[in-house]
Write the structure tokens for this entry.
Amino acid sequence: MRVDATIVLGCLLLGLLGCQRGKEQAVVIEPSAMQTRATLVPGDPFGSASPAYARLVEITDAAFALPWNDALEDFAPWLEEETVAVERALSLLKAIRVGPRDVYAVANGRIAIVYDNIADALTEASRLAEAAGFEADWKGQEGRLWEQSNAFWARCARGCSTGGAHLDAWDLRCRAGLANSRVKLGL
């Protein structure tokens, strides 16, 4: 059973103030389906990273902060902005891959969240377009996006599982994201 590092550290620091865990193991709480939405982004678990990573964080945070408003007429411009964000993040990921592995793993998770966000919106936009009697040119593309999401979640999960206790929150998030993308792909 995995021990949550923040609980243990808090208990060590506040041991005399009532934590009183004794020999009990920490309970690991898996993120629920609601928590695996794109809005759940753990904090960065490491100190200052490279300028490329800092820029990737800016780009992905901006993409997370820009949800689609569920209006079909606004979908194409929104999708264009999200696509540009992914392309920029992917170019920065190339610079990060030669750096620390924990930074690279988390960067993959951040990109996976953007892919999840786009895939969820594309699925909903396809449903709305069909209900309105439109033939959407993006119809059937959700699978490709979930495949991309799955690949990034897998890299994140692999990197975080071997990266140490400082990656525990991202490890849980990446495993949940990987499981979610596999469900969407029917795996």
Observations:
- Residues 101-131 form the longest helix (31 residues).
- The two ends are 26 Å apart (CA to CA).
